[in-house]
Amino acid sequence: MNATIINIGDELLIGQVVNTNAARMSQMLTGAGIQVHNVFTIGDDAYDIKLYLELGLQAADIVLITGGLGPTKDDITKTTLCEFFGSELYENEIALENVTRLMKAFGRELTPINRQQALVPRCCTVINNVLGTAPCMWFEVEGTTPQKVVVSLPGVPFEMVNLMETEVIPRLQTHFHTSAILNKNILVQGIGESFLSDLIEPWETALPHHIRLAYLPQAGMLKLRLTARGTEQAVLKQEVDTAVAGLYQIARQYIVGEDFETLPELLAHLMHNAGQTLASAESCTGGAIASKLTALAGASDYFLGGVVSYSNEVKEKALGVKHSTLTAHGAVSEETVREMVTGVRNRLGSDYAVATTGIAGPGGGTPTKPVGTVWIGIATPKQVIAKRMHFTGRREQVIERTCNEVYASLIRIVKEELA
Amino acid sequence: MNATIINIGDELLIGQVVNTNAARMSQMLTGAGIQVHNVFTIGDDAYDIKLYLELGLQAADIVLITGGLGPTKDDITKTTLCEFFGSELYENEIALENVTRLMKAFGRELTPINRQQALVPRCCTVINNVLGTAPCMWFEVEGTTPQKVVVSLPGVPFEMVNLMETEVIPRLQTHFHTSAILNKNILVQGIGESFLSDLIEPWETALPHHIRLAYLPQAGMLKLRLTARGTEQAVLKQEVDTAVAGLYQIARQYIVGEDFETLPELLAHLMHNAGQTLASAESCTGGAIASKLTALAGASDYFLGGVVSYSNEVKEKALGVKHSTLTAHGAVSEETVREMVTGVRNRLGSDYAVATTGIAGPGGGTPTKPVGTVWIGIATPKQVIAKRMHFTGRREQVIERTCNEVYASLIRIVKEELA
Q1: A10 and A43 in contact (C-beta within 8 Å)?
Q2: CATH fold of the domain at B263-418
Q3: Is CATH 3.30.2000.10 what the domain over A180-258 is classified as, yes or no?
Q4: % of residues, chain B, pLDDT over 70
Q5: pLDDT tens, position by position, B118-139
Q6: For residue B3, what are the β-bridge partners?
Q7: Strand, coil or helix: A330
Q8: Per the CB < 8 Å rule, is B41 touching A42?
Q9: CATH number of the B2-176 domain
Q10: Which chain B residue lies closest to A282 (C-alpha atoms)?
Q11: What pTM value is reported for the model?
């Protein structure tokens, strides 16, 4: 069972908006045992919409379309779907009720342009979009068994996600008989892709044919994803567990954890279960460490807060870093990061604390402290650790790598100390 | 002059990695007057790579390919390009030198698998990738005038960006005669897409045919992008200026600024020019406000730092919010946000300060303070302002909207006070 995703929108083609919808949808589909065959991003162009809808239906059983449903002139998806399916627009009751309800909620009157949102092709089933005015539309293609499905969704991310989770995925699973699938993530850090590849090649080659390995590099870390397909979930689980055990035998030292998508998720799980608290003191990462942690629901369970000590004054005022330390060793130094991490741990009263100070670039580098030089500090109930890193890449890359280095180092220390 | 982008990688199809490359490349191409016709995301599959390369070349003059160049088994782009162009792999000197240099820099020896990175099709021109081991390859298609171009780039974002900026875009501009293009951004906030559309429809309809308007909605704000194509830059500028002047006449109150891609960029520009400093106190946004500001180079010019006061204890300890205030009015209240914003401004000694406290969800809502309730505080040399917002959507949406509301409010106040 496979799917093609078509994301419509000129904004995607001028690069003003990153296409996060494709990733979200792919994750949800993969998790449901539906393989994404490919993704087309096209403009609000009737010819292209029809062409890639056709190509999509040739290659896959399901075509999911997002975008082009807005009330503005450049949105033509609905009329184009009418042409494709030889249907016509009519005002749908469910959709009209929904638009009316939402306008009332916003305290606005229903304008003619709002009302157009309730027009849909006659041949589709309307799936109500409770979060927005654009209706979701379900089409079944005549003369295919089981009938291939085309679903048109709004491009607004949170509306799309809600519709996919609550309506589209369940309906697809009932409409098609989806085969058993098992995904297993292993988070690896401290080794480059090619070196890991050398290390685990014999193991990879020995994997059963129905278990696929994907390398998913992120800044400063690597996620290995095993995907197993078969008929029985229980059997797949056994086979995957065996494979993972084999991986531990050859790469244990690089494995940070399993079963989580990201290091922040793993860290949150660890801290929560251990009932430990965390605080952060960020200079070069400028709040990125805290914001990635607090982006996850339930962060307040363990994350007390932090200080973004961007200027030296703030390092002194808010963290108690000594003025003499800054003048003698500079802001990017072992001494400073140690005072930052101890300062934030003491002042915020957390069990654990992390700190970063470095040169993210592009400016600010010196011969002795080039761009990419970063000091990381970790304070625990038992110890204070500081390490110097040198990261390559641009500003955002350096920030990303620093975050992942901090998360991975902390996870390793917490596991060790709480073992 | 138009282009097709092909992003290769199974990781993109299981949704583990968001395809930011497509957006980056589209931005750079659009800026260079090359229109992106469409984007294909496909797996590491020889059949598909050839099929969409063919489709891409039918629709466009340029096909840019990323990914599938890694040293691991699942990377097949180079061999597939050989099949497509009827060529063969050979060890390229420039590429080998580069791999050797990088391995030495990492303090690693050159493994056989690293060395494979130096293999490229004979028919291509190698563009040296100074930041990574995968070479960039330039192909010209026989029998087309001007010869259509296929460029294969590494999928690692910062390597791709560097190659595009320094090598690929300049070479494309020399190879093809690119027409004059002018892009103009107008940042709009405080009105929904459909209401703005109603408001400006007469203006939009009256735009000259060669000037296109795109609606680029972001969380809590809207970017309007005018794209003008013609022969003379000067003429285009005049026409676009006239159009923008017309827009101000009907929508001035909603326009936050021009010529910037994002509100943080505009804010940074304003604060820098005014020589004013900023500090932040974040509860529900958890560091997102600071991290978006510090993601931009030069943030240290005006951003002193901030406090992520996630727990009430930190609100008291680090910001001096009164315990009585928290108990009497709760963390999500006007009183608390006022004490947060004054506290951070006084303690960090900034000219301006912003603060947020709210319920991002999914949990934590109450009948009187449902999920999406957010208090925003802004302190200036002249005044302290607090406003209550109610945002719809999921956690990330609420955080995003809060950030944009804070940036837009601050920009308006700073413009007003410094006028």
Answers
A1: yes
A2: Maf protein (3.90.950)
A3: no
A4: 100
A5: 999 999 999 999 999 999 999 9
A6: B36, B62
A7: coil
A8: no
A9: 3.40.980.10
A10: B305
A11: 0.79
Q: What is the mean pLDDT of residues B11-20?
A: 81
* A398: nearest Cα among A337, A353, A357, A350: A357
Nearest to A132 by CA among A156, A165, A108: A156
Closest Cβ–Cβ partner in A20, A308, A392 for B18: A20
Contact A72 B347 (CB under 8 A): no
Rounded Cα distance between B269 and B257, Å, is 11
**Of B193, B308, B354, B400, which to mutate for an interface test with A (greatest number of A Cβ within 10 Å)?**
B308
Name every chain B residue with its beta carbon within 8 A of the beta carbon of A223. Answer: 16
Contact A15, B25 (CB under 8 A): yes
User: Which pLDDT does position B17 carry in this prediction?
Assistant: 75
Q: Which residues of A touch B304 (CB under 8 A)?
A: 310-311, 313-314
Is B397 in Cβ contact with A216 (below 8 Å)? no
Q: Where are the domains of chain A?
A: 2-176, 180-258, 263-418
DSSP A135: P
Long-range pairs, B232-241, Cβ under 8 A, ≥24: B232/B180, B233/B180, B233/B182, B236/B180, B236/B181, B236/B182, B237/B182, B239/B208, B239/B211, B240/B182, B240/B184, B240/B211
pLDDT interval class at B143 (50, 70, 90): confident
List the beta bridge partners of residue B279. Answer: B305, B353
Distance from CA of A112 to the nearest CA of B (A): 9
B113: which chain A residues are within 8 Å (Cβ-Cβ)? Answer: 194, 197-198
- Residue B394 binned pLDDT confidence (cut-offs 50, 70, 90): confident
